[in-house]
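Service request form, structural biology core

Requester: graduate student, group of Dr. S.
Request type: structure prediction, single chain
Budget code: on file
Notes: please return the result as structure tokens.

Sequence provided:
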Amino acid sequence: MAKDSIGTILSYEGTPSIDKAYFQLNDTITVKTGEFVSIAHIKEHIFGMIIGIFRLNPFFEQIHADYDSLKDKFPTTEWNKTVVEVKLLGSIKEGKSARISNPPFSGSKVYFSDADEIRTFLGFTESGLNLGNIAAESDKNVNVKINVSKLLQKHLAILAMSGAGKSYTVSVLLEELLSIPKDQGSLGMILFDVHGEYKNFAEPASKEFVSYHNLTRYYDASTMKFALHSLNDSLLFKFLGNISETQQRELLRILREFKENDNTRVFDLKDLIKYIDESPLKVNVKEPLLGWLNLAESQNLFSKTSTFDIFKLIEPGKLTIIDLSNVLNMSHKQLIVAYISNKLFELRRLEKINPLLIILEEAHQFIPQSGTEEFMKSRQIFETIAREGRKFGCALCLVSQRPINLSTTVLSQCNTHLLLRVINPNDLKHISESSEGLDGSSIKLITGLGVGEALLVGSAVKYPVFFKIRERKSQPNKYERDLQQMSLSFNEKKDKNDKDLDLYM
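Core staff response, request fulfilled:
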């Protein structure tokens, strides 16, 4: 059965060209920006995406001084026409996509692209991660199924303004990754959860939702402690702060002596502080070292043994959540993230753990574009993973609501961007400078995205794809409350306490 056309190509604004075309939309049809269309052309179809919609009326193309007397003499409402701007992406011939060699002819018919055309042209795969859907043939939808390696191996950035649906999108991504069978190459996943938004994954779900608690481990970062002897030199100096090269050399020498006393010995900061305090070091070296070590001890991050098994943080097909919401000190958060990420990357380079994905919420806090040394403790390891991780099977997913504050070095290494609504012009400029596949027309469309609508651009797809994030299967975060709910809860608790006090009195 032949498809019905939705419009006709016009000779308008110097088009059609091999890059752009305009068509007059049939009166009974409605379209949206981001939808895909096909243009009949000789023995092939030209594939394009709608990037603009305009209303035209020849009567109103000039000023009418006597408008009131003329308006009833012409059927002006019948002259209203809709013109649609299409960005031409390529052609489809014999089921294969190719570049456009010749522009479409004026008068050619335009159709909604069918599901097969969309899948063929954009490179969707039936076995891929189902992130959402896009419209095809008006009322039909095509699932946006993306190959997991194409999406993640060269790193992914999920960027959006607050409230646009970042955590919802990450939840959908986690659901898809947790659904990959082990025999199909499932990844190990670790999520640094800054606001405690994903704790629901570690808890049994009610009947109407899918439960992932058997595949999820949960750690409260405020209770985590690290074995001091497990720190390499670079990490040790991050924890100590701005320590001079002379003091670094002295500390390394002391550590060597300290460890040589007993090769199997485990120790904590108190042991090291005592050893240095009793050593014959010069005062100008000893006192600053003791000051830094005592400051590090006050952070309560170290013990003789770690409170967790680093090898069990990553297992194929399982998710580990590191909940940072109870850690208020930003430097403390950075140290936790830096330590765990360093150790996991080292283990992965040595192939001692499964290939993994590190998901970093509020990434701009941990990988800032600039800042003082105190707030840059985790930046170096993520720059290293961004450059080298793809070779060793260590992928990054960076999630941020302030892309402008996120390191350009790291963001530019994320070859796929999943963008939700962004309206800040500085953030948009930063994103466009970091994303090779993003053009001006796509940037303009990002500001008009609704909640849950997204643009996928980069190496995971052949062309930018606007789509609707699918509905989540996991239980929503039951700990998240809005301002009014917090106020109601507080007042209910206060009223109860007041009544209890009155009874007591």
